[in-house]
Write the structure tokens for this entry.
Amino acid sequence: MAKKKARELVLPVINEIKEYSSNFLKNDEPRHAFIFPDYIKHNLKHQLRDYQKQSLYNLNYTQKDENSDSRFNQLLFHMATGSGKTDVMAADMLYFYHEFGYQNFLFVASTKAVIAKTRENMINVQSPKYLFSQPLSINGTTIELREVTRFPINSEPGVIYLRLISIQSLDKELDTPRENGLTYEDLVKQKLIILADEAHHFSAGTKSKPDQKNRAWEYLLDRVRQSNKANRQLEFTATIDLQNERLYEKYRDKVIFQYDLKQFQEDGYSKRIARLQANADDNEKMLNAVLLSQYRKRMAHKAGIKDFKPVILFKSNRTNISKVARDQFLTIIDQLTAEDLFQFIVRQMQTTQSSTLRQAYAYYQTTDIGNLVRELQRDFQPLNIINVNDTQENGILGDLNNLNNLNTLEEPSNPFRAIFAVAKLSEGWDVLNLYDIVRIGEQSITSKQTNSEAQLIGRGSRYNPFVYEKATSFTRRFDRSTPELQILESLHYHTINDKKYIDNLTKSFEAMQLQVEDDKNFKIQTTTVKESFKKTNVYQYGKLYYNDVEDIPESEYNGLAKYGVSVAELPTVNIETATLEATAFDTEQVTGINETRLVRVDDVLVKKAMARNSFFRFNTMKKYMPTLESITEFMHDSHWLGQIQEIQAIVSAGTEVYLDRTTQLLVVEKYLAYIQRMLIMNYKRQRGTNKFIGLPIKEAVQDYQKRVPINYAGVGVHEIIDSYNYKGAPWFVYNEAIVDDLERSLVELIHGYIEKFQHQYKDVYLIRSDESNSKLKLHEFTGEISHYAGFLPDFILYLANESYVYQIYIEAKGPHLLNKDQWKEDLLTSISPENIDVIGENDQVKLYGVKFYVHGDARQVRHEFGKFIQ
């Protein structure tokens, strides 16, 4: 039977909001020009992401509608698993409290696990999962968030009351009134906000036949909401099936925000997900997972990432299987010997189809296996293993004794590395450092069960924001890096190689729009340093050079330029929509038809914009601008805002020529928000110097690997990475060049000059940079420094004779990155003997950088090479 094609869903409210958003500058209604509030920004521990801010924008649109009591009293936020629904709920609570005076909030979920997790998020200020800043304060007034069992008749000012209760308990409580419990009579007297989490559970009746009894929970929430016309019901879910006709009819006018899993993954907020399938028994799968997990830990340590603790979930379908598997696991680890483990690795290396396992086992074959055994027995000792078994009602966190252990798995003090569980949907489990899910006790399962497994994998894919090179990222950063780093952002799902099961699982992935790669559809490209090169004096005694960095003295933070903000150029902000802050200062990303307007900056606009952002209080500013003497200096001095006379605003096509004062204020506010980010990001930074230091070539040039896909769907032709044989080219220091199409054309361009170089130089070598070697990064050292992180050039051309040693830094660049990375080209072209000092060397060592190499050599890099040929 042909697969039924999913129909395209029309969601009228979202479409209405989009339409008004694109034209909101034409309207004077305040709901169309919503500015993200400081009282939310400064009271949440996490900075909201752009899509989360968009959800609040949409909510504000509905609540500022004059018919909100009838039209928008029940709303649905359809958000991907792991996208931060609870953060949005916290923001919504502050919004309704401040904007409309709501003090009573009723949080409802279908499991005690979600209730317990939310209590940690909302109430327990000592919990690492607590979402609010401390103290909670709005307009200088301290706000208390208080858990209650019954909302007070007379509310205290400055208090937000929160009742946390399961839907089952709420049903019983309202049906059978008890002392200090909720009653329908009380609910009539005061307005409240219902926060319904995992809301797909509250539509079972709608989804099935109308006459079934399981509509009770829907009726219950309807009655609570309808007890007061000012009540609002906000529902949150990742898994509602809007293809179901009944559900679609119920929610078509209630869905006000949609952010699906596919978009979540494409935006980089999740780990990459790979399916690792093998014909192996449980014992082999468990040991494979342990070795892969420990490999991740070692690669993190090698990269300088502290406290990186990857966790494994061993998932079974039955409690007795889970308990037996735990006992088997502990026996395997306890009785493991170096000889047994070595033989296991050899066998797996010969049979596994997983590119990642081959990568790990190739590494282990170069290490001390005895030391590895001792490490595994220490890390996976019984005290570091936890067994939890859930029930339909309580989920994986049903045993509250396990709640703290499971919800603090990311903490360095939490010892657990492996979890054995009969895990179903696992709603409420927010672990970020889960990297392996292993099916134990394989058996035939239904498509409904694979749906549950797909949801579990979706939850496990949440990104783990670890610190790398002194920076924390909340999105993936190693997609094009080495395999050793890519594995730190990848989740592996270990399962059997059974066609029927895989087909069902794949359908479940497709239904969720969950993007899962087949781990065997990757190859590890390895390149090795030529033995002939290792025997040369260049390899043994030569050096490659990079510039040193220094701390920037506080006295030099005397203007915006020192923070990377250009005051000499016309600044540009994007206000096509009020919430697209991510593209506000990147005009390359602007899509669609737009126009520009100039906003004249005056004192009134600046003062009002600063007053609406608490960062621009002098005491706060002084922390980041140590040389600043006054607010007046910040506003008028030419080193600060004094030169900013106009701001260019990108607006929707057809916008009025003259922007009203409200919109002008929005433009200035967004520019100040940009300045705030640059001040915070670039204060107390290190900058490059013109002093270049040598690193021995034999330390810098080593064998390395890249993990590249076999299936190139969705990858541009010029981005395809492959391995090319250069064993017969003695001038290329590696046996293979692992490069994309653009880089390969650069290598071949240099190849065309090799004969000429060899006539003039004794030593001619082209060195491909190993991306894992961050020591050789170059940093800006001339002019007004705007980028502090530095970058690693793609290639270094090494030329030497009796008189000189030349090193030429070369970078290949695609056309879409030319403007964004112009600073890198400026850095390269600033490297020349007259501008730098090579420490410890005489003037025989000469370093140069050249312009970007682009397709077709449009920037004439070949002419740059001519400078080194007489």
